[in-house]
Amino acid sequence: MKPVLSFAVFGIVFSISFILSSCSSGYSSRDDDGVEQGIASYYAHDFHGRTTANGETYDMNTLTAAHPTLPFNTLVRVTNLDNNRSVEVRINDRGPFKGGRVIDLSLKAAKEIGLILNGTAPVTVEILELGPPTRR
């Protein structure tokens, strides 16, 4: 391969790698103690009564949440960093599916930490009890 072409290929590969690594939302981080920080949102009426990723029926009036990676039945404490209010929820669904968000809370959980008015808030997500590994 000619040196100019080789350099061009390297530049393209490097540029693509840089762009892809920059595509992460930047809103989420997890420290060594398993505490994740990012943006929380909630889901309610449109999903009430539908089946969650773990097979349960979604009930917006229970203390549950959707998380992209934590095992189902993991218990977490979510703290709203705007008002320091916390709630303990059980992971029973997958999500959120909107960029930059780390957890989707049920309506009841969102109300408990004062999330309803703005719809989103900066939070910490602290693992209290890890659920068993699952295949779903």
Report on the architecture of this protein.
With 136 residues, the protein is of the alpha+beta class. It has one domain (27-129): Beta Barrel (Barwin-like endoglucanases), CATH 2.40.40.10. The protein is built from two helices and seven strands. It has helices spanning 3-22, 107-112; strands spanning 29-30, 35-42, 64-66, 75-80, 86-93, 101-105, 120-129. The chain has a six-stranded mixed β-barrel with strand order 2-6-3-5-4-7. A hairpin with a 4-residue loop joins strand 1 (29-30) and strand 2. The N and C termini lie far apart (46 Å). Residues 4-27 have low confidence and may be disordered.
| E-strand count | 7
Q: Give the averaged pLDDT, no decimals.
A: 83
Distance between the termini: 46 Å
Q: What overall geometry do the principal axes of the alpha carbons give?
A: globular
Give the fraction of residues assigned to helices: 10-25%
Q: What would the keywords be for this entry?
A:
136 residues; alpha+beta; Barwin-like endoglucanases; six-stranded mixed beta barrel; 2 helices; 31% strand
Offer a quick outline of the entry.
The chain has about 140 residues and is α+β, with helices and mostly antiparallel strands.
